[in-house]
Amino acid sequence: MPMHEQFRTPERYRFVKGIITQISESTVSIIPYGENNEVEGFYVPEVTEFWKGGLNHIPEVIGQPGDQGTMSAFVDDSGKLLVETLYVNHKQVRGKITAKKDNLLIVQQQEPTGLCSSGIALKFHTDAVTFDDIPVDMNKISVGQSIIAQGEMVGPNLLDVYRIEVN
Amino acid sequence: MSVYYFSASYYADCGTGNSNNACNSVTGPCYNSAMQCAWANLSGHGNSIAYYCGSSWLCNDKRASDVPLFSCGDVLWVQDLCNNNGVHVTVVDHGPNVCFCESKCNSVNLMRAIDLTEGAFSYLENGSLTKGHIPVMIQT
């Protein structure tokens, strides 16, 4: 459920992506990438939802310290950060398919520095779909194509994909 | 005031080596958490859809060459046609480099011409990043 409209304004909105340092049944703390100061988000009953893989959000708290947290939140009048959603280990990958085997693709993506590129393996979630909500047909995917994949990082170089687009 | 209808996706590479930071000298770098976007037909940088798909590439009744020209620093009102959420975003990058003519939430087919930052897309989508693209109305 979206945050109450009283809080849900662009001025109050905060999008935070970084490493989870603490997570409990009521709050999550994240150190945003490129920053040193931890931010704490407070869950809101019947509003806050969590994601860790697949196409759906869940109401139960999920994630642990060390995971990547992507938080959509709003500041209330007292300065508290109210969490709308928390995505755990969510990642979007853009690159070129360099190899394909069964349910697995290897994609060459550019490093953030832009100076070099690195490979990442994509394996497909059981309910993986395209950007147009069509079940993924591996026969229509070829080496050399450009790909955008969204999924859960389940290892240093392994993405469990729930949605892809091939161009 | 001008009104346009396009398809929007998001990218997490804003400000990194995967984006071209086309507007860096004008707007400063792109920030993934800010209300910003990449636009396909950017003054001084060309029309990425016409370049990749051909200027006569057609989506519904629009050609690639019909994508309006915006400049670095322009502020666009972007409204999500799936839920009517809207937000102002600043053009800070060039792209997307794709040829997609697509529909969502019962919209007509729309050309994808805007890449929102993860932060802007998440705001429009009530905190969700699970959709691949959304239909949007853009006002300038």
Supply Rg of chain B. 13 Å
Shape of chain A: elongated
Note the beta-strand portion of chain A: over 45%
What is the CA-based Rg of chain A, rounded? 17 Å
Shape of chain B: globular
The main pleated sheet of chain A reads as:
5 strands, mixed, barrel
Topology:
The complex is a heterodimer of chains A (167) and B (140).
Chain A lengths: L12 E11 L3 E6 L6 E5 L5 E3 L16 E8 L5 E8 L1 E12 L2 E7 L6 E14 L15 E10 L2 E9 L1
Chain B lengths: L2 E9 L12 H4 L8 E4 L1 E2 L3 E2 H6 L4 E2 L2 E2 L11 E6 L5 E9 L6 E2 L7 E8 H7 L8 E7 L1
Parallel strand pairs in B: 1-10, 2-8
Antiparallel strand pairs in B: 1-11, 2-10, 3-4, 5-6, 7-8, 7-11, 9-10
Can you put this structure into words, describing what you see?
The complex is a heterodimer of chains A (167) and B (140). By secondary structure, chain A is an all-beta fold. In chain A, 0% of the residues lie in helices and 56% in strands. Chain A has no helices and 11 strands. Chain A has strands at 13-23, 27-32, 39-43, 49-51, 68-75, 81-88, 90-101, 104-110, 117-130, 146-155, 158-166. In chain A, the strands form 2 sheets. Chain A has a 5-stranded mixed barrel with strand order 1-2-3-6-5. Chain A has a 5-stranded mixed β-barrel with strand order 7-8-9-11-10. Chain A is elongated. Chain A starts with 12 loop residues before the first strand and ends with a strand. The model of chain A has no long low-confidence stretch (mean pLDDT 92). Chain B is mainly beta. Helix content of chain B is 12%, strand content 38%. Chain B contains 3 helices and 11 strands. In chain B, the strands form 3 sheets. In chain B, strands 1-10-2-8-7-11 form a 6-stranded mixed barrel. A two-stranded antiparallel sheet of chain B has the order 3-4. In chain B, strand 9 and strand 10 (110-117) form a beta hairpin. The longest helix of chain B has 7 residues, at 118-124. Chain B is globular and about 35 Å long. Chain B starts with a strand and ends with a strand. The mean pLDDT of chain B is 94. Chain A binds chain B through residues 2-3, 10, 13-17, 32, 49, 51, 55-57, 70, 72, 84-85, 87, 90-92, 94, 109-115, 130-132, 146, 148, 150, 162-163, 165, 167, and chain B through 9-13, 16-18, 32-33, 35, 87-88, 98-100, 102-104, 118-119, 122-123, 126-133.
